[in-house]
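One such shown below:

_____
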Amino acid sequence: MDWSREEVEAIVVDYLRMLSLELSGQNYSKAAHRRALQAKLNQRSDGSIEFKHGNVSAVMIECGYPYVRGYLPRANVQALLRTVVQEQLAGMRELDALALAVVQQPVVAPDLEDFSAIVTQAPQWRHAAREPARTYTPIAVKRDYLQREAQNQVLGAAGEEFVLRYEHWRLRQLGQLTLAERVEHVSRSRGDGLGYDILSFEADGRERFIEVKTTNFGKETPFFFSRGELQFSRDARDQFQLCRLFEFRNAPQLFSLTGPLGPVNAILGVRTGLKRCQSRRRAPCRPGVCTRSARATGAVSSLFPAGCDPKGPSPVLPSLARYLPCLRLAPWRWPFRIATHRPK
């Protein structure tokens, strides 16, 4: 049974309340919030409420906001839900202030001696039943807090310092003390713009080029790439590694992705298609630049409206595409926004 507007408004208001408490560092009980909601939601099941919370998380990411920890983004979002979320966000100045304070807050790299517990698996593609494709609904983004966090240079430097120490620890654990001493923080020693941040090594002495992306938010939070980083991931495809740090302030964890992020021309095609599909002019995609047909390979999620199929062979994103099927256009300074969350 579809959710009514009254139900959707109730769950969105409650979700944004929990997010405000979380961003302000205050404790709250998800179970208590869920019990209070059930009286307003025609006694919907816990599973139904949990799934709807995941839908809200997906819309929050689309709007450039962090999501409530534990409510992983879920696809098949009700169009009414998007409308209600945007309406609620438009009038929540307190949430804007909290989100802005969190993404701009400085942080230092945590002190750890044993890094064995921080490594986790990368998000994986999950098979899911899907509803028929619908007309694309544009999302108005007032202020992209995830982009602002990506521009937090203090956070980025702290994340790089943390990964530098992790690489020293990893090589020492492998008995490669000499290689551990040669690990270099190249973005600091040589300058930014090389396409990677840390020069490390494999156990056999081969170089490992590590690009670090850090967030204080959850594992499913999108991250940003520059053109140079994408190009370098292609040029050094056998040695490139993305290191994604998440929950950095509270309990840092990381996952690693190896290999190229995909041919630059293919990613540029996705970028161009998204720019046209999401533009305010709502112009149709130009033939040959949109990789909609690559969905069949799991390379790109359903982000394009009907009628934007390319008229030529569609480039396929190999390797890491199985981890990163969702590609989104970032604002002008950050050309690419890559979402790690999976449609479910």
About this structure: Strands lie at 184-185, 198-201, 207-214, 223-225, 240-246, 253-258, 326-329, 336-339. Residues 125-137, 263-336, 338-344 have pLDDT under 50 and may be disordered. DSSP finds eleven helices and eight strands in the chain. The longest strand covers residues 207-214.
